[in-house]
Batch of 2 targets.
Target 1
Amino acid sequence: MVSDKEDNRKVKSINDSLTECMRIVKHEDINGGSRLFGGRLMQWMDEAAGICAMRHSGSVITTAAIDNLQFKKGAYIGDIILLSAKITYVGRTSMEVRVDVFMEEMKTGIRYALNRAYFTEVCIDEDGKPLPVQYTIEPETVAEKAEWEGALKRIEMRKARRTEGY
Ligand SMILES: CC(C)(COP(=O)(O)OP(=O)(O)OC[C@H]1O[C@@H](n2cnc3c(N)ncnc32)[C@H](O)[C@@H]1OP(=O)(O)O)[C@@H](O)C(=O)NCCC(=O)NCCS
């Protein structure tokens, strides 16, 4: 659904760009210890975040930053992996996308959290220069409002890291 908002940008529902992808861990995805490669999981997460940001903005995007990436649990061959990507904040040219990763147990359907990260995706033109995001979001639920507030703090932390180099 699209409607008007105070900052003159159209509002898109967060659910319109909610992106869920399933994967199965195959031989080519594992390392010497028979576990899913961290790099492979990061690739899948980057794809999910990028698809979510493209669906929200209707624009070409690039990944500017990834943070809070923590590996909580390993995954193994044959495991079913669910990636869920959701817009949490929209800036002038950038969007923050939260990606949650779960392993879904085949027999029970129970989902175990493996990983979570926040991606900063920037709309770009054909020369790779940042472009304004055409649509914003209007957080409605308590969780969505908390994510927006959290994003404002994370943006300050990213700025501090960039300027102070830590
Ligand atoms: C992302 C990129 C387009 C930003 O270009 P830039 O000239 O630095 O643009 P700006 O300084 O105007 O920043 C544009 C937006 O990106 C955000 N941004 C830029 N660098 C960022 C970083 N390191 N972390 C978080 N946000 C960042 C800015 O806060 C700004 O957001 P806003 O407009 O919503 O306030 C540019 O740095 C780039 O092309 N990087 C390489 C991206 C890439 O190749 N990714 C694939 C993985 S290798």
Target 2
Amino acid sequence: MTINEAQQEIDVWIKKYGGGYFSELTNLGMLSEEVGEMAHWIIRKYGDQSLKPSEKEVNIDEAIVDEMTDTLWVLLCMANQMGIDLEKGLLNNFNKKTLRDAERHKKR
Ligand SMILES: [Mg+2]
């Protein structure tokens, strides 16, 4: 699935099942919420925070995928409602970073 296809599929889903898009500002809040949920599990896998007793049965790898996908979902919703072509944006971003950083990280 390309990014353009993902944007189109989400648009169809939102109109069919989601009752329409939330406002841009609501989605901005939801994006922050999903990033926080993703951070919760990444911190527990890679950081110093340990699991709560109620989290012991959670598959952390699956939780990270789920929250990362929730984050992508909201971002794609925002792109749709703002008329942004994220595939074109990503290609432009690759070009920008390549021009700016082609030599920058080779010494790391
Ligand atoms: Mg979530």
